Amino acid sequence: MKYLIDLHTHSVAGGHAYSTVKENMEAAYTRGLRIYGLSEHAPAMPGGPHEFFFGNLKVLPKEYQDMRVLAGVEANIMDMEGTLDLSEKRLKLLDYCIASLHLSCVKPGSAAENTNSLIKAMQNPYVCVIGHPDDSRYPLEYERLVEAAKRYHVLLEVNNSSMNPLNARQNAAENIPKYLQLCREYQAPILLGTDAHYCDAVGVFDEADEILRQVNFPPELIVNLKPERLWEYLPNASCEA
Question: Which of 43, 50, 62, 75 would you label with 181, given CA atoms 20 to 30 Å apart?
C-alpha cells in the first residue's frame, strides 16, 4: 500500500536525531508523501528544544514542492492526569499534537493508571494522535484505550520505529495487533508514523505495513492512505496551503 502521510518525525533540534528539517522534507518528497509533519519532542525531553522553538515554527514553509508541510509537536505526558509539557499558548499555534509516554518524563503506573493518563490526554482539545501505545513498559488496557480514541476522535498510532529490534520499547510486535483488532471492532481509524530520527527513515513504513498485512487490517481505517481524511483530526490545521 502507498502511504502518503508521515507526521511523526524528528530533527537535530530534538537533541537526539540526526537530520535537518530540510533533509527530512527532501526525503519525504522523494518518497512520494503528500503530507509531511515535523513533531519535535517538547521541552521536558532531555535535550529537547525550548518552548520558543514551537512558537517560531511559523517560519517553516507550508509547502515543499507540491507536498504539504505541517508543524507539530510530540508532547510528553508528565503525570497520570495526562498533563502535557507544552502550554496551551504554544499548542494553539501548531497544526497538530502527538501525546506520548516516555520514561524520561513520567514513571510507569499500573495498566489502569497508564490508560487513564492517555485517555485524559485525549481530552485535551489539541491532542490529535496518541504516540506509540505499544510499549509493555507502560502496560495498557487496550479496549478502554480504543473506545476512548473513538469517542474523543483521536488517532492511535502504529509506530514503525517501535518494531526496530534496537528500539528500547518492548513487545510492540505483540501489542500492536491487540489494539488493531479492537480498532477494527470499534471502527477507530489509525495513523502510521515512522518516528524517524534520521532522514532515511522518513516515509518508510515497512514494519508497520507488515503487521497490518498480517492482521488483514481494513485500508479504510488507515488515514495515511487518504490524506483528505487527516483534516478531520487536525482542528488547528487548514487543508489549504
Answer: 75
pTM for this one? 0.97
Q: What's the CA gap between 92 and 237, in Å, rounded?
A: 10
Average pLDDT over all residues of the chain: 96
Where are the alpha helices (H) located in the chain, listed in sequence order?
A: 21-30, 51-55, 88-91, 111-122, 142-152, 172-186, 206-214, 227-230
pLDDT at 192: 98
Answer positive or negative: Cα dihedral of 127, 133, 137, 142.
Answer: positive
Angstrom CA distances, 41 to 3, 48, 77, 109, stand at 23, 6, 11, 22
d(CA 133, CA 135): 6
Q: Is the pLDDT of residue 9 over 80?
A: yes
- With 0-12 / 13-18 / 19 or more C-beta atoms within 10 angstroms meaning exposed / middle / buried, residue 193 is buried
Q: Which residue has the cell 509539557?
A: 85
Are 31 and 24 a contacting pair, CB within 8 Å? no
